[in-house]
Amino acid sequence: MYRLMKLPYSYDAFEPLLSYQTIYLHHDKLYTSYLERLNKLLKELNYDYRYSMVELLDHLDIFPVDQRDQVLFLLGGVLNHKLYFTSMSPEKNVEPMGELRKQIEKQYGSWDAFQIEVMRKANLMVGSGYTFIVVDKNHGIEVINLSNQETPYSYGMIPIAALDLWEHSYYLDDYHKRNQYISDFFSIIDFKEIGKRYEKTIKEN
Predict the structure, then answer these.
(1) Could you read off the pLDDT of 47-67 as tens digits, one per residue?
(2) What phi and psi, each to the nearest 5 degrees, are found at residue 18?
(3) Smallest Cα–Cα separation from 100: which of 190, 10, 5?
(4) Among the listed residues 67, 76, 59, 78, the one whose alpha carbon sits nearest the alpha carbon of residue 43
(5) Tell me: the pLDDT tens digits for 182-192?
(6) Measured between alpha carbons, how far is 51 from 133 in angstroms, rounded to an integer?
(7) Pairwise CA distance, residues 131 & 45, whole Å
(8) The sheet that has 129-135: what strands, in order across it?
(9) Which residue among 50, 64, 66, 104 has the highest number of C-beta atoms inside a 10 angstrom radius?
(10) Quick check: is 1 in a domain?
(11) Is the Cβ–Cβ distance between 100 and 198 less than 8 Å?
(12) 67 and 134 in one domain?
């Protein structure tokens, strides 16, 4: 079975921006539900867990055609939530460094311009979904929006950060003010970890 990812911080690590209740419900109820439903479905389909979750995205053809969409949805829900939770850190105002910083400045001109682009893109998201920071096949950094539980892996891109824009991510704290939640995200985003992901990605691809 695929295993539950424990949070690398406490439920109240981001108060007052994100409350204990928001993080608890998001991780222990919603993310956990995606994982449990995925494992339940895979068990019914007699899956033997031969692949990692990312690898499984490329092998959906092992399942009956009428079950693939549901497997993909639940798989995306697990992968996207894991990425979201590990895109944040209680350490404050940690800016990207190293290769990631160089690439951001090469493409976007400056760190400030990149922040503006991420917030602009996130505010354009319609309905439920995520804003992702991804690495493309040329090792470039792109900011994309995907609906529901779609994953960038399905489009040949490797995600290194995710901002969850489903209402359950922010509604208890910011109500309808999604723009405030998006702005606040830059005070808790973990660019130390994201930078490590970028360097690992460009070495392996």
Answers:
(1) 999 999 999 999 999 999 999
(2) -125, 125
(3) 190
(4) 67
(5) 988 988 999 99
(6) 25
(7) 31
(8) 141-147, 129-135, 158-164
(9) 104
(10) no
(11) yes
(12) no
